[in-house]
Write a structure and sequence with these properties.
By secondary structure, the protein is an all-beta fold. The chain is built from 1 helix and 10 strands. The chain has one domain. β1 and β2 form a beta hairpin. The longest helix is centred in the middle third of the chain and has 4 residues.
């Protein structure tokens, strides 16, 4: 039996983030996230004015995309929802430098790592954003690859420690393949499996 498609996707979702070189661990962040905002890249146009007074449309290359999360970090380590280790990988590959012994220490680094960010809405949410919703369940999923975490801003202005985290994504990779997928199902078929790579649609 197929569940009816809802009027809107609201309230609950799953969020999974994977690091390049650490794809076996999809870190779940829905339990630490309050708000999510998206900035989709514009496919803008400009015009060239000709000597006849006419206009020639000149396409502008598609702009950057971004995702911003308002999160509530409890610890610094990834396994406990800490974005500090995500923003400051201690070594490349990512797993080789992570502090796993209490107290967890994360020092500022110059390293940058690519990420996959997956968000899933469904009438019956599976355990993780990368899992496939059950048969007959409508679902909506966003997948981003080659995403860079460019901002991690802590805030304590309302006496609750929170942070604003931003990932930026170029619309295409060097070969011209899209770095974002947006997909849905009405429940008559299930979504395909999510990517298992931070840098490709594997």
């Amino acid at each position: 039996m197929t569940t009816a498609v809802p009027d809107s996707w609201d309230e609950f979702c799953r969020i999974s983030i994977m690091r390049d070189g650490d794809e076996t661990n999809g870190y779940a962040f829905e339990g630490y996230t309050e708000d999510i905002s998206f900035e989709s890249g514009d496919k803008d146009i400009d015009v060239v004015v000709t000597t006849s007074g006419g206009r020639i449309v000149k396409p502008t290359p598609m702009g950057m995309e971004s995702i911003t999360l308002k999160v509530y970090p409890i610890k610094t380590n990834l396994s406990a929802g800490g974005f500090a280790q995500l923003f400051h990988p201690q070594a490349i590959p990512a797993t080789s430098g992570d502090d796993a012994t209490e107290p967890i220490v994360v020092t500022n680094t110059k390293e940058r790592i690519k990420h996959a960010v997956v968000l899933l809405w469904s009438t019956r949410l599976p355990a993780t954003a990368t899992a496939v919703p059950g048969e007959g369940e409508p679902a909506y999923r966003l997948q981003y690859i080659n995403a860079y975490m460019t901002s991690y801003k802590l805030d304590y202005s309302d006496k609750v420690l929170s942070a604003e985290v931003t990932f930026k994504i170029a619309p295409f990779n060097q070969a011209g393949t899209g770095n974002k997928r947006e997909e849905s199902t009405d429940g008559t078929t299930v979504l395909s499996a999510a990517t298992t790579s931070a840098t490709s649609w594997a």
